[in-house]
Amino acid sequence: MGLAFGRKAQLYAPMHAAPAVHDVSAHGIRIRFHEMGSGKPLVLVHGFLANRHTWDDVLGRLAADFRVVAIDLPGFGESEKPNPSKFKYDFDAFAESVLDVTAALGLSRVSVGGHGLGGSIALALAARHPSVVENLVLVDPLVYPSRHGLLLEASALPLVGRLAFKQLYGRSAFHNFFEFYGQESTAPRERIDQMFSQFGSPAARESAHATLMTMLDTRSLVAMLPRIQARTLVMWGREDEKSPVAHARNLSRQLTSARLEILSCGHFPHEEKPDEFCATLREFLAPQTPKPRPAAPRGRRA
Question: In 10 A of CB 287, how many CB atoms?
Answer without folding.
Answer: 5
